[in-house]
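Can't attach files on this board, so I'm pasting raw text. These are the components:
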Amino acid sequence: MYSLDNFTLSVNEGQIFGLLGPNGAGKTTLISILCGLVVPTSGHFSINNLIYEANANEIKKIIGVVPQEYALYQTLTARENLIYFGSMYGLKGKNLRDKVTEILDLLGLLKYADKKIETFSGGMKRRVNLIAGILHNPKVLFLDEPTVGVDVQSKNSIIEYLKKLNKNGTTIIYTSHHLSEAQDFCTEIAIIDRGIIYAQGTPKDLINSTSNARNLEDVFISLTGKELRDDI
Amino acid sequence: MIYKLFMSIQKELLLLKRDFGGVVILFVMPLILIITVTLIQDSAFKTISDSKIPILLVDYDKGNVSQTVFENLKKSNVFTVVTKIDDKILTEVVAKEAVFKGKFQLAIIIPEKLSVDLQTKIDQNVEKITSSLGLTDSLIKKKKTLILNRKEVKLYFDPAVQMNFKNAVMSSIDKMISQIETHSIYATFQDQLGEGNNSFEQKSFITFKEIVPKINDKEIIPNSAQHNVPAWTLFAIFFIIIPLSINIVKEKSQGTFVRLRTNPVSNIIVLGGKTITYLIICMIQFFMMIAVAIFVFPKIGLPSLNVQGNLFLMSIVALFSGFAAIGFGLLLGTISKTQEQSAPFGATSVIILAAIGGVWVPIFAMSNAMQIIAKSSPMNWGLNAFYDVLLRNATFLDIVPEISLLFLFFIITTTFALLYDKKKRTV
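---
Top answer:
Structure tokens for the assembled complex are below.
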């Protein structure tokens, strides 16, 4: 994991912001800091004009996090998991139950709502993982590789739902190794490596500004090189 | 905050409910433990005829000393005296081999001419005393004084026999021999002085009587249940460390801890939910074990646990012991990276805490250095508090120091867990 040094980044409200970079670039460190998972030794950040050090709990109320791993209790049902995680945002009673039912239905999981997570396929777990991060209608949603290891249908369902969320006002900050997905999905992208931002802009601008680049993958290779990044 | 805590407790209870095997182990194993240990401990102290220990007696003496030893051993109700194997009179070689092979636990070898030589030696000593007092007939020709070697009764123990058994046997044989010697000395004096058989009172002049504490003028006579149930209940309560630490390691490995850290909920609420849930389990375990000790023990031939008027204070001790165990479990779960680390470490540390806490060997029987260590074991604080309540007629104020230490242990371990977690999250 590379530490972030002299790193400055701002993301405008309403964007779908892609953080792209090879293994060990510092993406997870950055997202972990912004979500309050790790504490930086120096530096500051603010979300929605709230400085984290002074407003950690307020910030946690307006952000949603969808971690890369299926952060769910395997022996609880999808509904039990979502009720629990929803309650941690202060949601309660009928509102919470209705919200869980509504989103499970939207993501095609309602008929499996009362089945244990351990019986779910990878794609189903990914969708429940996503729902657990958005039950409270976050203003900013952090997604760490939300479509990794899922079938095309689940991936499509997740991306479509995220686009709907964004249209309804949620700012999305997203990391992925699927460059074609990021190219279609993101409104702005930052390519980072070794804790430094190499390029930032819309996918179209990044492609146009790189000679002989036909897509985002060409831009990525041109900026970060072909050297293998085995990350232990 | 209360709502989030309530939901956390509900989630923990749901997780436990879904692990049926785990729940059975949590509640049934302590009961099996307490029944098994009390059965074993109880039988060790019982002197019922069918549990007599067979011992070998090789009699080269054939006199009144060996006869007295034989009769006293028989009367003790603890031993069955074996003098023949395969219808052959025992020899020292045969007895030694049988004991060293573990077929018998003890062999007593009474040397040749022990009775005769003992009497001779006593005669010589008594004669010396009476003549120095001028009580002998000067006309009687003095006997020639024989030089006698010291006699030795040999004891062979099975090497697997524990030291406390050895010590108990050696002490009772020593006492038996002293009594025989005393009796012989008295008899010889009577004979020398020409007195009748009843002139000396040979019964012990000094006796001892155990004074036991009383509640409402009723003596509290501790039985094996009073000793074992608190000790092993405490041991079972501390075993909560293992499932709790595994629960935390699982939360970390499946990513739910990561998610919870991004939620607007403090780590104290998350750990508080676990603390309350596992405290509920500890208390259910405790009441189940007490119920078994009161109602099931008498049905299987064990003495019933008498908790008359003490159940409330015992529950308080169990509650605070639960706090201490949970604090340790939270710390262990936070520090451990895998279940392979937390489970064996948890199990062995509970056994170590029990050993140094006096669950197996009483603290007063430990060395000075070990006694100091023992007094720093939370299991010792809990055990002392239980014994204070159950056997020493203690009040709530009497157990305040011990339960305060148990709670302090919980606070310290939980604070360490929170600080360690915070440190690990700094980049």
